[in-house]
UniProtKB/TrEMBL annotation:
Protein name in the entry: TTF1 factor
All copies of domain Myb-like, residue ranges: 124-172, 173-255
Single GO cellular component term: nucleolus
GO biological process: termination of RNA polymerase I transcription
Alphabetical list of InterPro entries matching this protein: Homeodomain-like_sf (IPR009057), Myb_dom (IPR017930), SANT/Myb (IPR001005), TTF1-like (IPR053078)
UniProt cross-references to SMART domains, sorted A to Z: SANT
Molecular function terms from GO: chromatin binding
Length: 349
């Protein structure tokens, strides 16, 4: 199908698809669209975020079956074929012949690319080698000076995974602060996000910078746009003293606080309605693992965004309402809140 049609059809399953590159959309149209439609028929939503235990087990089962069918003797050869130059041609042919893409994604309602990356992480023997020594950190700096961001080359030299060396370099490339955020750091973070959002809006709307803001210089940005995936490595560079994970976590906490403040100023009735809606929807989901909750979808359904606000609200609920919540499973916590707190909230409403 043509690119515009692919975007329209994929948008039903991936709302942010228009922010994805054209080449990736073409691949998704071939690898994912038919799968997504099949999952829709079964009433299964497409998922993002952390893989659940059940999904990891299904992925491992898929890989085991594929190895059995093809006779390839290790998962490492499937995902890191370039490490075996003498067998490369044979392995590649077997992958094509036995529909590698389709096979490893069976029963997993996620984009193929995310399944593939998860499998690479699980089956890379270089991925779980413990903490970096001082010598390794020095080597990493040296190799980066020689090879730049060629993480594949650096991973070969260090016998660590691509992901591992890239993330570790992100942490050590500048003096990282692990203490409380200073006012200056927070201002740098806000400014960095503002610059990124300004560029994104200009690209999407073709607008001039002057037409995107209000008279006081603030950007006119929809709430949900602030929650979308942002280029955190770029923001990390602009902040300078924090690595990307810290920037992401801090930004989400800033959004959550601002939204919470807004809620506190609303009528008590609306706050209670939101609590009740959250409890009921979590109960209706009947999930066993908190990682199976699609917080983004839940935020949209309840109308309280960003999803960090809902997660924070649920955390406060379980800590304040559920005795010994640390010893209970997610489903037990939800059941307890439904039985003991939901009637109280409904009565108060």
């Amino acid at each position: 199908i043509d690119l515009d049609t692919a975007k329209k059809e994929l948008e039903e399953f991936i709302p942010h698809v228009r922010n994805i590159s054209d080449s990736s959309i073409r691949k998704m149209a071939g690898r994912d669209l038919a799968r997504f439609k099949e999952f829709k028929k079964q009433g299964i939503a497409i998922k993002f975020g952390r893989f659940t235990k059940k999904e990891n087990e299904q992925l491992q089962k898929n890989i085991k079956e594929f190895l059995s069918i093809t006779g390839i003797d290790s998962a490492e050869k499937l995902f890191f074929t370039w490490r075996y130059p003498e067998e490369k041609e044979t392995i590649s042919s077997l992958k094509v012949e036995h529909q590698f893409c389709a096979k490893i994604s069976e029963g997993i309602p996620r984009p193929w690319r995310l399944i593939y990356y998860r499998a690479r992480k699980i089956f890379d023997p270089n991925n779980y080698k413990g903490r970096y020594t001082k010598e390794e950190k020095e080597k990493l700096k040296k190799y980066h000076a020689l090879h730049g961001n060629n993480w594949k080359k650096i991973s070969e030299l260090m016998s660590r995974s691509n992901l591992s060396v890239a993330m570790k370099f992100s942490e050590i490339k500048s003096p990282i602060n692990y203490g409380p955020w200073s006012r200056e750091e927070i201002q740098k973070l806000k400014l960095a996000v503002k610059e990124v959002m300004k560029r994104r809006l200009e690209m999407e709307d073709g607008s001039s910078p002057s037409s995107l803001g209000e008279p006081n210089g603030d950007l006119l940005v929809k709430r949900e746009q602030l929650c979308q995936q942002l280029p955190w490595t770029e923001i990390e560079t602009k902040v300078g003293s924090r690595y990307w994970r810290q920037c992401k976590q801090k930004w989400h906490s800033i959004l959550a606080k601002k939204m919470s403040r807004g809620q506190q100023s609303e009528r008590k009735t609306e706050i209670l309605e939101n609590k009740i809606a959250l409890i009921k929807r979590l109960y209706e989901m009947k999930v066993e693992d908190i990682n199976e909750v699609n917080w983004e979808e839940l935020s949209d359904a309840i109308g309280v965004g960003p999803n960090g606000v809902l997660q924070a609200q649920f955390y406060r609920l379980k800590v304040s309402c559920v005795p010994l919540w640390q010893r209970k499973t997610f489903s037990e916590i939800v059941d307890f809140i439904v039985e003991h707190k939901l009637p109280e909230f409904e009565s108060e409403l």
